[in-house]
Each structure stands twice: as structure tokens, then as C-alpha cells.
């Protein structure tokens, strides 16, 4: 039976190793304890993405939930935040918030994520609208964009 230690808000498990675990081994053990719905990407960036996702689930005002991180998120973090949305309405609301704030340049990956979210929800008019907006903003579709469209239409 292993010992559990709590460090920096993360549970670290030492499964009876005779030597002390390295930092990466401790991180890996902690990631294995994360609930299966949670993305391992949440652990990155000091838990910033996890904090944002938790705020989005509890705070209804996007300015309040996302405001503290305004202009500080990487494209990858924005992608994870969008991808983790279960409800298409919430995902679209967050996507539009990023567009309106003007501090993020949403790229083809972000549009692909939203096309997939809206397509899975069978929101075809919104898929078409987003496709038109994407083209109007000069965001060029790539192979994965077409693959996403094929996937959602199946």
C-alpha cells in the first residue's frame, strides 16, 4: 500500500519505491489520480487551466470567470478550454467572448474545435454560420478542418 502526500494541491503517490521519486515521476503519479473526465492538460501551467475551467463551471459571467487571465492565455490553453466544454451553448459563448475581447487571435484550430462542438450538437445553421465567419475573417481551412466537417456529417 502506497503513501499519499499532498504538495501544491496535488496528491503524490509513492507506491513503496525504495528510492525517492523524481519530479516527473511524482507528476506522472499525480496525473494518474486525476478523474478520467479531467484532461491531463489541466495539470500543466500550475493548474491555471483547471482553475479557469472550474471558474467557468461556477461563475456565469464570463468577464468575471475569464477576466483574471485576459491576454495571458496561450493558443493551446484557449484550445483546451474550448475543447473541454460539454455544452455547445457554453462553448460558443466562450468562443465569442474570446473574439469580442480582441486580445486573442483565434486560429484554424479554435474554429475546428467549434465546428466539431456545433456539429456534434447537430446545430447545422450555426456550423454554416461559423464556416462563413471563418472565411470572412481570412482563417484558411486546412485538411483537419475538412476532416472535422466529414466527421460531424457522418
Helix fraction? 55-70%
Beta-strand content bin: 5-15%
**Average of pLDDT:** 77
Poorly predicted regions are 1-43
Q: For the record, give the distance between the C-alpha atoms at the N and C termini, rounded to a whole number.
A: 47 Å
InterPro entries: Mito_RNA-Proc/Resp (IPR051240), PPR_rpt (IPR002885), TPR-like_helical_dom_sf (IPR011990)
Family: Belongs to the PPR family. P subfamily.
Protein name: Pentatricopeptide repeat protein
Pfam family, one: PPR_2
Give a written overview of the molecule.
This protein starts with a strand and ends with a helix. The protein has eight helices and two strands, in the order E-E-H-H-H-H-H-H-H-H. Helix 5 runs antiparallel to helix 6, helix 6 (about 110-120) runs antiparallel to helix 7 (about 125-135) and helix 6 (about 110-120) packs parallel to helix 8. It has about 150 residues and is mainly alpha-helical. About 55% of the residues lie in helices and about 5% in strands. It has a two-stranded antiparallel sheet.
List the helices and strands and how they pair.
Layout: E1 3-7, E2 10-14, H1 23-33, H2 48-58, H3 62-66, H4 75-83, H5 88-101, H6 108-120, H7 124-136, H8 143-153
Antiparallel strand pairs: 1-2
Protein name: Pentatricopeptide repeat protein
Family: Belongs to the PPR family. P subfamily.
InterPro entries: Mito_RNA-Proc/Resp, PPR_rpt, TPR-like_helical_dom_sf
Amino acid at each position: 500500500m502506497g503513501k499519499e502526500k499532498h504538495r501544491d494541491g496535488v496528491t503524490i503517490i509513492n507506491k513503496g519505491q525504495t528510492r525517492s521519486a523524481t519530479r516527473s515521476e511524482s507528476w506522472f503519479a499525480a496525473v494518474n489520480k486525476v478523474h478520467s473526465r479531467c484532461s491531463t492538460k489541466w495539470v500543466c501551467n500550475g493548474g491555471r487551466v483547471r482553475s479557469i475551467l472550474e471558474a467557468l463551471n461556477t461563475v456565469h459571467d464570463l468577464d468575471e470567470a475569464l477576466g483574471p487571465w485576459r491576454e495571458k492565455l496561450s493558443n493551446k490553453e484557449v484550445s483546451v478550454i474550448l475543447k473541454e466544454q460539454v455544452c455547445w451553448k457554453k462553448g460558443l459563448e466562450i468562443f465569442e467572448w474570446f473574439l469580442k475581447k480582441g486580445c486573442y487571435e483565434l486560429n484554424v484550430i479554435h474554429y475546428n474545435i467549434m465546428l466539431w462542438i456545433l456539429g456534434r450538437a447537430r446545430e447545422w445553421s450555426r456550423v454554416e454560420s461559423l464556416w462563413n465567419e471563418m472565411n470572412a475573417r481570412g482563417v484558411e481551412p486546412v485538411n483537419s478542418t475538412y476532416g472535422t466537417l466529414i466527421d460531424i456529417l457522418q
